[in-house]
Amino acid sequence: FDPRHYLGTHCHGFPKTGPHRLRFLLESVKDLRETLKKKGSTLVVREGKPEDVVRDLITQLGTVSAVVFHEEVREIL
């Protein structure tokens, strides 16, 4: 979870992540973790800037052969 997504960012006068969206996101992550657990896997969840968190995870894990990510699509007006 990138804290920059929850600190006063606004789009068209509305918070980027309001309480309803945050609740949906938390419930979705919880459900995904439970689904993965039933399949013998897990989900790593961290809070922080992705550029810091991913670097720290790679260092912690030691051997990482690939890192995959997606970038949020931004609307151009």
TrEMBL record:
Keywords: Chromophore. InterPro entries: Crypto/Photolyase_N_sf (IPR036155), Cryptochrome/DNA_photolyase_1 (IPR002081), DNA_photolyase_N (IPR006050), Rossmann-like_a/b/a_fold (IPR014729). One of its GO terms (molecular function) is damaged DNA binding. Pfam families: DNA_photolyase (PF00875). Signal peptide: none annotated. GO terms for biological process: photoreactive repair. Residues 1-77 form the Photolyase/cryptochrome alpha/beta domain. This is CRYD protein. It comes from Rhagologus leucostigma. The gene is Crydash_0.
